[in-house]
Amino acid sequence: MRRSLHFFLAILLLALTVGCGSMGRNFDDTHVVDIKNNATTKAEILDWFGLPFKEGVENDYVMWTYQIDKYMAGHTNSKDLVLLFDKNNVVKAYRYTKTADSD
After folding, report:
1. For a Cys staple, 84 with which of 4, 47, 61, 64, CB 3.0–4.6 Å?
2. Which residues, including other chains, have CB under 8 Å from residue 37's CB and lie 6 or more apart?
3. Cα–Cα dist 10/28, whole Å
């Protein structure tokens, strides 16, 4: 009986531990309101947010992604900033999303 209880508690603890995790790197979103299309430079973005979590290319434009996703037993908190830069290293477009209870 005692062995069964220990086994059950171990399985429960394992299930709770596996249900938690994160992906990405947290970033300070204070300056998101300062981003202006066709005005904000790549240097300003670097100064405000640091190095991006991901870099890529979309339709010949450089794309940077800042992202943090935290998973906790069926609940996800996330914060994402995606920026496209033109050929002059100026923000062409951006998208910012976050869940209501993100950091």
Report:
1. 61
2. 91, 92, 93, 94
3. 37
Helices (H) and strands (E) in the chain, counts: 2, 5
**CB count, 10 Å around CB of 69?**
15
Please give the chain's pLDDT, 103 residues, in tens: 677 766 666 665 555 555 677 788 899 999 999 999 999 999 999 999 999 999 999 999 999 999 998 877 767 789 999 999 999 999 999 999 998 665 5
Q: How far apart are CA 83 and CA 97, in angstroms?
A: 12
